[in-house]
Amino acid sequence: MTSGRDALLQKNPDDVVITWAKRTPLCKARKGGYKDMSTQELLIAFFKGAKEEIKIDPSLIGDITVGMVLPPKAPYDARASAIAAGFPDSVPVQVINRFCSSGLMAVGNVANQIRNQEIEIGFAVGFESMSATPDRAPEAFADEILNHPVAKDCVHPMGWTSENVSKDFNITRERMDDLAAQSHQRAHAAQKSGRFTDEIMPIQALQLPSGAPATGSNSGSKQERVRVTISQDDGIRGNSTKEALAKIRSAFPQWGNGTTTGGNASQITDGVAGVLLMSRRKAEELGLPILAKHVCTSVAGLPPRIMGIGPAYAIPKALKRAGIEMSDVDLFEVNEAFASMFGYLIDQFGLPHDRTNVNGGAIALGHPLGCTGARIVATGLSELRKRKQKILVTSMCIGLGMGAAGVFVNEA
After folding, report:
1. Is it the case that residue 386 has pLDDT exceeding 50?
2. Where does the record place the Thiolase N-terminal domain (predicted)?
């Protein structure tokens, strides 16, 4: 009886497989390519592009799950945008929100629906327009929460948790700036060599003429916009060095050692990613190319004050479910929410930096909250194909003290 890596590589008609996984370019919020588009317009543009690329009749899709975090009327945005883009009204849509893991939760949710034979085909989408829906202050918390020794930590902003990780685990400012510079340098090299090209679906964006103030299109502005094709990420700074990053002032000097800055944390970004899943049996019936197999998704909880190290809790759970060890994994794609948490994962948890975020991460590319979990699936699978390697683990920390991880096998 086979076990471990060999067992993972076996194929079964009931496997949940991926036949399409792509992302839009990631663009700086309120400054980049999508700054003049509403939530619905960005979703519609993505759904229109995906509908042309997935190579199936969209009416065959049993469910669409959209991971998104900030939009206040998310279910309306997702459902109406899918229909407006040409998906038939017979295809249901739901929204899922587990903060930074929402895109991966969408993938896991669809995979489980297929395993349970609730649907044959499902479309998982990760989305965020941080231009159109900037972060909002939370409502007041109940006294029972504020008086609880752990629950009260959920009240604090994420920058506080980054400083806690940095101070508690001695992740220095110098180390954080070094990792941030490497993220930009890796991403710049990948972009320059065309390494991102096959994972990116160019998108038709609506933009105000040059020099006009950004509107997010939610302001009611009637100024005519022009249609522009966006095909590249716009947040990568290839000239970043740890020396230059060391000159940036602390973003949170009131907490910890004040090591977190705008240069060593993930960028505020807009973007969309999608993953089409179905059973292997259905993919073969439809004659679709199989890119990868979804093995499992795992989530874990931990103290909210150090939420950044969530992958150190979630990755072992996912590996155990998959029946493999860290040494069996060819590539890791981990969301770089803050360089403090990334430093912990590399230096103390033991992720191999030469196999983790090899083309840079969210510090360089950006972190559209709901999009990221699906984006890193598309990125990781694309890189596995180029390397002719097999096993991918994706992971991220999650606000409020959680972590998530997924295991995938490349079959392209």
Report:
1. yes
2. 16-280
Nearest to 262 by CA among 363, 173, 354, 409: 363
Cα–Cα distance, 22 to 20 (Å, whole number): 7
Cα–Cα dist 399/100, whole Å: 7
- How far apart (Å, rounded) are the C-alpha atoms in residues 292 and 18? 5
- Whole-angstrom distance, CA of residue 36 vs CA of residue 270: 11
- Distance in angstroms (rounded) separating the CA atoms of residues 169 and 166: 6
Q: Provide the angle, in degrees to the nearest 10, between the axes of the packed helices 372-387 and 102-115.
A: 70
Compute how many other C-beta atoms are within 10 angstroms of the C-beta atom of residue 169.
Answer: 17
DSSP 294: E
Asked if residues 24 and 201 have their Cβ atoms less than 8 Å apart, the reply is: yes
Alpha helices in 54-157 (DSSP H): 74-84, 102-115, 143-146
* The pLDDT value given to residue 219: 45
| Whole-angstrom Cα Rg for the chain | 20
Query: Which residues are the active-site residues?
Result: 100, 367, 397
Residue 211, judged by CB atoms within 10 A of its CB (0-12, 13-18, 19+), counts as exposed
Amino acid at 363: I
Record the tokens describing residue 54, joined without a space. 């997935």
Residue 129, pLDDT > 60, answer: yes
> How far apart are alpha carbons 17 and 30 in whole angstroms?
36
Query: What is the structure's pLDDT at 138?
Result: 72
